[in-house]
Amino acid sequence: MSNYFEYHNAWGASASFFVVKKKRKGVPLVIFLPENKSVMESVKNELELFSDLKILDYPSYTQNPFEEARPLNHIMAARSKTLESIVQEKDFILLISPYSMLKKIPFKNEFIESVIHLEKGQIYSQQKLEKQLDKLGYIHVEFVTDAGEYTLRGGIADIFPAGSADPIRIEYFDDEVESIFTYNKDSQSRKKELDKISILPVADLLVTTEEFIEGLQSSSELKEKAENFGKFAGFHWLAPYIRKEQSDIFEYLGEFDTACFMSSMQDSIYAYHDIIESSMPNEIQKECFISAKEAVEKLSRNNVYIISEITDSVESIPLNFAGSKTRFSFEKKNLYQSMTNAAETLLSLLKDKMKIVFAVESEKFTGIFKDFLRDYEIFPREIKKLSEIEGPSISIYRKHISGGFIDKESSYALISDMDIFGFTKRKPKSKKKDAFNTKLSDLEEGDYVVHVNHGIGIYQGIKHMTIAGSEGDFLAILYEGDDLLYVPLHSIGQLQKYIGIQNQQPRLNSLKSSAWQKLKKHAKESAKHIAEDLLRLYAERKARKGFAFTDDGSLIEVFERNFEYTETEDQLSAIYDVYNDMESETPMERLVCGDVGFGKTEVAMRAACKAIACSKQVAVLVPTTILARQHFETFTERFKGLPVNIDYVSRFRSDKETKEIFKKVLEGSIDILIGTHKILSKDLSFKDLGLLIIDEEQRFGVSHKEKIASIKRNVDTLTLTATPIPRTLQLSLSGIRDMSIIETPPENRLPVVVKVIKGLSERIKAIKSELERGGQVFFLHNRVQDIEEEVIEIKRELPLARVDYAHGQMDAKTMDKILSSFYNGELDVLVATTIIENGINIPNVNTIIINNAAHFGLSQLYQLKGRVGRSEKRGYCYLAVDDFARLNSIAQKRLSIIQQLSDLGSGFKIAMYDLQLRGAGNILGAEQSGFVVRVGYELYVAMIEEAVQEMKGEYTNIADTEINSNIAYFIPADYIENPRIRFDFYRRFADIYDMNSMQELLQEIESGYGTLPDEVLNLSFIMLIKNFASMLGAEKLMLSKSGAVKITFAKETKLNPALIVKCSQDRKILYRFISEYELSLAVESSEPLKVTADFFQDLYNLSRAD
């Protein structure tokens, strides 16, 4: 029989504090929470402070079967780890949300028996291991990077088990487990030896692929899909199809009490169950969940505590806590004022003999707070548990909580950063991604490539051959007349992927003609002209004397402290780059690249604050009226409480308003003016403009760009972009324009799922799915003439949905009203043209449907995709087309690429793909486009960069040393089977320029693939020798097994012979100068290649110092 207790007046973390005090010893407590990740995280942090028990959370994967995507591996892994803890622990607190509670899972005994237990010396074959991993839901991959993945090769198994911080590597001797250890997934280096390991499931449906296919007899369509793709994405929804009986979380729990942090547990469960049922594609899949009635009954078996802020129930008991709303509410003019008030409050509480805990997650902000309190002779210590506090004192708890409270009965006062400062300083993810980088390992057979010395050919794959007595791997390139060139992989640097002009197929060059060398000569002359123009721009910029902003930190210090988050490493780097530029007398011209929502605007606002601190004005130029207003709201909120006046101009403002704003700008009473091209008006003059910030410069037309260029000449300029156009990249990479890159995604940001759909029914289903999870939808339809018809169609199919439309031809007041309604949640669906491409940032909008998606460019699709997924919820981008098969190849490729590049921070790759699809002709101009077609974009830009360096006196000619050797040096195919992975390792060997880096790479390979073959060891030394020889100006290098070495230097080489003598003597190598440019060495050693590599490294280091 259940006992219901209702309580109200819960403030912040007081609900968590109260249930810990009420919890019965030895009886697990289940806390029922809303379907909100942030709430669950805060409550968990609070409970870990208040209780010494284990705090478990059972996360949801709220995916709809319609999405056809696997749940995130780390979520499934966390769910399994929690189930294991429930089975093992006697007493604990479990956090659960409606979805996790309702979703069916394997029976308890089935889960326990499925776990793989391995230990050293055990006989457990790899075949058996693979079958069991398949049953547990693990995915076979080439490289293990995430929980729930595995790979098998030779006598090695790499597995990333559920609940493990690192992947594990199992080394076999026949069928015996010889060793088990964790390893670093990036460096592949060993971390910790293990005697045994338990591998938990990462799926809610425990079946092998064979069992799965066999069970799908009732659906021929699903069975055929399974036969082709195995356990395809979404397989976990199909338990009812294969007649697989399942259980629920309650079977694992046994006896427990319940606490609900919502006003009505029953109403919440029934409401969420209705949402789940309506989102299921068919009746069968509704069987994946238990009924709402059953869930309520099972939650209500014992004590039930309903805890909320307010209640309508007359039986509800008020909690005796003072809340943050009454005790910690301050006038927040700025951070300094808030901290002063906080210190006074803390001193007052200390007089009352209170145990005070300040909860803040940020390390940076903790330090600032400690420094501030030191002035009051308050010295707080950091704690992990409330039980650590012995008497009246101030402590710091380094985690985020929902809000503070005071409990006079226990003499505790808990204060959050939100209580004092009005915001939460959160710790960001420290996830870094590779910067813009095109890899030859992306090559597919049939792709066009450019060889620096032989021209354009077609890549035919990797061939293992013996040529002129040298055994190794070669890249086969097809040329005109079916001639094949075999390029040794040590010369991989001579190859580039071809990028030319859209729809213009390049001509293959001939190996029997000198035409390529003549063409290269003409292309170099053209590149030289461009380099001259670039250097003229560079010289003009350097010659101009700008304003050197001072390092006066008073205003900027307060502004920085008011930032609500902890800056990411690369965001800070960009900020410091900007500061340094502004403090120089040379006018700043910096490009900041980063994906939507990655923190570019904060960098811009820091720059603006620095300019204002030096009494300069700031102009922020944006391409759309919507973005102008969005930036105005962002800047106004960020500068709140500081003596900074901000306004904006766009067509949303009347002529009278604009005229008045222009007047204030001239008088100097407006510090920051944000606006569209109206800022470029001849009627506007600034009193003292010091900084121009441009958002997405490529969106402006030619006439606007000319005006921008004239402004840039006299002021510091900061440009922000998510997808840099290749011309901009070229300027940046050539050193003409400075560039900062922000690659770290915001905390808890998930990649947007992109899917191609067709037909009205699929569009409506996508809208319905988003509305049912409480979100809003962008429906992009870029035809003004029939946009109202789309609205009518949606309303007909979804009569309860609140739908309206907006486009650029509407009058400003009407558009403003509609956009405000959508922003305030008064509309469910906004049908709009591309006016939404920039500037609308609404966290609750997590689905965008792009009608006629094939008509948009790649960068534009990428920008539109960025309108959603800007919160902790998964975002969905649906590309609607009539018939994918009927689209031309370019359009199909474009839509395929936007689906593939779902990772956060893919803007650089998008820029290069867009270049490939659109062609590079319009980037460099008509005259140069011919050279781009005939030599390829990358080689042409390399020629420009080389010419720039030559003119600046910075160019160093690095020869491509030709190697002849009777030593076998390659990566055997039976050692690393995947040709793409072998290719990537060859590329990495080609980039090694010191012994330490070589050893690190060898360690990584050995750790991942077992004992190094002699051929790989030989390859590592020969590639290192080649790289040093190239930098020393060697044209040819002969290496013999016996240790004989012959070097032929280029005639322009200026190498001091005395250095050769010294290095030879130091390494005990016999040397002989055959001629002025030829040298022979006799290396008498058991390791001749190592000694030769040491010789070349010594020689290179001495030559640099000479």
Automatic annotation (TrEMBL):
Q: Identify the GO cellular component terms for this protein.
A: cytoplasm
Residue intervals of the Helicase ATP-binding domain: 581-742
Sorted alphabetically, the Gene Ontology BP terms of this entry are: regulation of DNA-templated transcription; transcription-coupled nucleotide-excision repair, DNA damage recognition
- The organism's superkingdom is given as Bacteria
Main site of residence? cytoplasm
Q: Does the keyword ATP-binding apply?
A: yes
Q: What is its EC number?
A: 3.6.4.-
* Gene Ontology molecular function, alphabetical: ATP binding; damaged DNA binding; DNA helicase activity; hydrolase activity
**InterPro entries, A to Z:** CarD-like/TRCF_RID, CarD-like/TRCF_RID_sf, DEAD/DEAH_box_helicase_dom, Helicase_ATP-bd, Helicase_C-like, Mfd, MFD_D3, P-loop_NTPase
Q: Which UniProt keywords apply?
A: ATP-binding, Cytoplasm, DNA damage, DNA repair, DNA-binding, Helicase, Hydrolase, Nucleotide-binding
Residue ranges of domain Helicase C-terminal in the record = 759-916
Protein localization: Cytoplasm
What role does it play? Couples transcription and DNA repair by recognizing RNA polymerase (RNAP) stalled at DNA lesions. Mediates ATP-dependent release of RNAP and its truncated transcript from the DNA, and recruitment of nucleotide excision repair machinery to the damaged site.
Family per record: In the C-terminal section; belongs to the helicase family. RecG subfamily.
The cross-references to NCBIfam families, in alphabetical order and at most eight, read: mfd
Protein name per UniProt: Transcription-repair-coupling factor
- Species the sequence originates in: Candidatus Mucispirillum faecigallinarum
